[in-house]
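Structure (tokenized):
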């Protein structure tokens, strides 16, 4: 009877476990290298880095609402062999969503600040997502757990459900610019364009599946209103229907030659408000245009972006599609005896009330498009609080992946050399609060957006990220600015603003004393500036006395 369930779902689904990650503990830092680029491409405009070289970055984790994690070995089973039998302590929900696995591997990249207004970046990486959305729990366990058999009679009901596993590569170019920079206000925009290379995918989507399974010696599956569609470039329709799908074969095909091609990208905007723009700028002489871009100049920064726009097209030449619709009855022993290949399967399905057909056509697999909204507030010196909302924009009935809404507040300490942030997240998927920590020391960072499973039970997710980059930070301008609280020791001599901004050698000199006939008096030599001042004062006083004498004469 188990093969009957494989047939109705078209394929035997496989699963790992992971959660989509954003590295929020470090990505909100102003010295985070290219991490902030993935949240909003406008973040690289007026960057604190002259340039930064990304070396490597990895993140992975777990999130779901199927059940809580079994931390006593279940996670290690996933890491070792992809086995999910022991991962979850299943809850009472009949319908669930599971983002598993999600993984991202960032390859070397670079970001360059052309000047204080324009920046560019080049990035590359590999990504993969394995996702169940709005799936029936009994159907999921039947398809993914080899040793699972339902006890007695069960009802399987799923509507508008989707399963997509997808692995792809990407190469991106980014540009960020400051378009408005006026006194207290600054506006930045950014865009990223990516070439997407599809490595492999498996997809199953269903408008409806109502099934009733009757156990016993002559186990039978009754199906009504079935409407399922399968598509893949990694698994042929025939092998999926007859033999199911093994993890081994899938991963062999996933990491072969690229079969899909497409384009994607991100767009974003950032607004910064600085109530005291003279704090780090030379406003005594605005023509100089000096600003200290080595430090943060904002009190409040608000940003909005739409990221992961686009799709990958898999051509019909390497693509397999199938669709099953209608009502029917499948008997376990009868199915085993009469179905040995695809042709006999199709004949059997049609004779038992189903409509089953296969075809080859171009298929698009969509990116997990989402909206990022954030506000970053400077609370005190190097202490900030970031609030971010991430919302799904993808159509979950397409072949493709999607994210689940979340709201995160991240307090952080942020400096050039060191930063630490503690993201606190409410996740809509699991309806729980998660907490993590991210630490950056210069260009090395490590952290987690969800780490409570390491210290307590009943958690639905966990993750870890680690990476490194080489930062080349901007420096303060050579000409220091005129502030009473600045230490100017060792600095270059700045203009003397008490004399109208002229240099000391250009300052007006005191008039030399003259004799009674009007000729200048001979200049006396002095050995120090103090002596010159005394001499000048005496000469001026002598001239005043001579003037009074002339008046009396």
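Design, position by position:
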């Amino acid at each position: 009877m188990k093969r009957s369930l494989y047939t109705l779902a078209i394929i035997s689904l496989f699963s790992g476990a992971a959660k989509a990650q954003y590295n929020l503990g470090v990505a909100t830092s102003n010295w985070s290298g290219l991490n902030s680029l993935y949240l909003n491409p406008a973040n690289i405009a007026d960057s604190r880095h002259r340039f930064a070289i990304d070396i490597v970055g990895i993140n992975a984790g777990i999130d779901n609402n199927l059940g809580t994690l079994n931390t006593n070995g279940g996670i290690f089973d996933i890491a070792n062999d992809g086995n999910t039998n022991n991962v979850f302590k299943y809850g009472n929900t009949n319908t669930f969503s599971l983002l598993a696995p999600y993984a991202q591997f960032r390859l070397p990249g670079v970001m360059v600040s052309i000047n204080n207004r324009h920046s560019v970046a080049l990035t590359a990486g590999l990504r993969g997502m394995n996702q169940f959305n709005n799936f029936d729990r009994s159907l999921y366990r039947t398809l993914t757990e080899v040793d699972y058999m339902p006890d007695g009679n069960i009802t399987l009901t799923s509507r508008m459900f989707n399963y997509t596993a997808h692995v792809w590569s990407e190469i991106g170019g980014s540009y960020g610019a400051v378009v408005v920079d006026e006194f207290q206000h600054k506006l930045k925009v950014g865009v990223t364009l990516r070439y997407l290379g599809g490595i492999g995918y498996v997809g199953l989507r269903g408008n409806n599946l109502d099934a009733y399974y009757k156990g016993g010696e002559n186990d039978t599956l009754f199906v009504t209103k079935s409407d399922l569609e399968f598509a893949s470039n990694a698994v042929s329709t025939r092998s999926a229907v007859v033999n199911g799908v093994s993890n081994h074969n899938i991963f062999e095909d996933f990491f072969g030659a690229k079969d899909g091609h497409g384009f994607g990208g991100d767009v974003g905007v950032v607004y910064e408000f600085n109530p005291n723009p003279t704090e780090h700028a030379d406003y005594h002489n605005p023509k100089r245009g000096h600003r200290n871009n080595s430090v943060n100049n904002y009190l409040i920064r608000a940003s909005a972006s739409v990221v992961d726009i686009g799709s990958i097209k898999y051509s019909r030449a390497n693509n397999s599609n199938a669709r099953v619709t209608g009502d029917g009855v499948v008997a376990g022993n009868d199915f085993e005896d009469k179905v040995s290949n695809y042709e006999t399967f199709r004949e059997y399905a049609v004779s038992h009330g189903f409509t089953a057909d296969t075809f080859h056509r171009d298929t698009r697999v969509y990116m997990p498009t989402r909206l990022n909204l954030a506000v970053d507030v400077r609370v005190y010196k190097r202490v900030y609080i970031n609030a971010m909302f991430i919302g799904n924009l993808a159509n979950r009935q397409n072949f493709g992946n999607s994210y689940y809404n979340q709201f995160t507040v991240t307090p952080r300490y942020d400096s050039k050399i060191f930063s630490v942030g503690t993201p606190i997240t409410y996740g809509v998927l699991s309806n729980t609060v998660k907490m993590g920590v991210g630490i950056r020391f210069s260009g090395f960072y490590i952290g987690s957006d969800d780490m409570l499973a390491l210290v307590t039970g009943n958690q639905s997710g966990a993750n870890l990220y680690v990476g490194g980059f080489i930062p080349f930070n901007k420096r303060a301008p050579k000409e220091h600015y005129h502030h009473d609280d600045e230490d100017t020791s060792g600095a270059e001599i700045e203009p003397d603003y008490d004399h109208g901004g002229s240099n000391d050698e250009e300052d007006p000199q005191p008039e030399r004393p003259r004799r009674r006939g009007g000729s200048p008096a001979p200049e006396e030599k002095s050995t120090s500036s103090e002596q010159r001042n005394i001499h000048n004062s005496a000469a001026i006083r002598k001239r005043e006395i001579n003037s009074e004498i002339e008046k009396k004469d």
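Reviewer-requested clarification: The chain has a mean pLDDT of 76. Residues 39 and 152 are 49 Å apart (CA to CA).
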